[in-house]
Design goal:
The structure is a single chain. It contains 6 helices and 2 strands; from the N terminus they run ββαααααα. It has a two-stranded antiparallel ribbon with strand order 1-2. The chain is mostly helical. The relative contact order is 0.16. The chain has one domain (28-175): Cobalamin adenosyltransferase-like (Hypothetical Protein Ta1238, Chain: A, Up-down Bundle). It has helices spanning 30-50, 55-76, 79-85, 92-109, 122-147, 154-175, and strands spanning 16-18, 24-26. It is 62% helix and 3% strand.
Length: 186
């Protein structure tokens, strides 16, 4: 477990920061942007949790928040450094856990008849925002993967997570007896 004895180091004052393996890179690099978006997503999930979501979602989301720390760590290290530092990586079991959540919620909610507008209860609205941030993180991570090697399950995990967050928002509204507002084209 990392131990932070000092919060500021002044090493980033020039716009350069360090990866987990010690490499120095610009703060706007694709890798830093990718795990920065994961951090923002994790924070938004924390905001959703703070709204007092139903217990089933609270428990699942706390596990997901831990997974996102692992995912951020996974992205913070170059592939060649991961064995050296014994880094936790996102694997197939993480993707499967999300698929299990999605399948369970789909069974309980039934099929989606129309597109729905984000909103409803405060918790559901925050989960919808988390979903949108997840999609942005997916775009950043995909962009990173086009130029640098990353773990093979990172993109599938983020892709499933956005679907899970969507279903969780729907489920939270159902638990709060709030009807979904459907999109009315034109």
């Amino acid at each position: 477990m990392p131990r932070l004895t000092k919060i500021y180091t002044r090493k980033g004052d020039t716009g350069i920061t360090g990866l987990g393996g010690g490499q120095r890179v610009p703060k706007e690099s694709a890798r830093i942007s990718a795990f920065g978006d994961i951090d923002e997503l994790n924070s938004q999930i924390g905001v959703a949790i703070s709204c007092g979501l139903c217990d089933e979602l609270q428990n699942a989301l706390q596990k997901i928040q831990n997974d996102l720390f692992d995912l951020g760590s996974d992205l913070c290290f170059l592939e060649e450094d991961k064995k050296k530092y014994n880094i936790s990586e996102i694997g197939g079991e993480h993707v499967q856990n999300l698929e299990t959540i999605i399948d369970k919620l789909t069974t309980e909610l039934g099929p989606l008849e129309n597109f729905i507008l984000p909103g409803g209860s405060p918790g559901a609205a925050h989960l919808q925002l988390a979903r949108a941030l997840c999609r942005r993180a997916e775009r950043r991570v995909t962009q990173l993967a086009r130029s640098e090697a990353i773990s093979e399950k990172v993109i599938p995990y983020i892709n499933r997570l956005s679907d899970a967050l969507f279903m969780m928002a729907r489920y939270e509204n159902r638990k709060r007896n709030i009807d979904e507002t459907t999109w009315v084209p034109g």
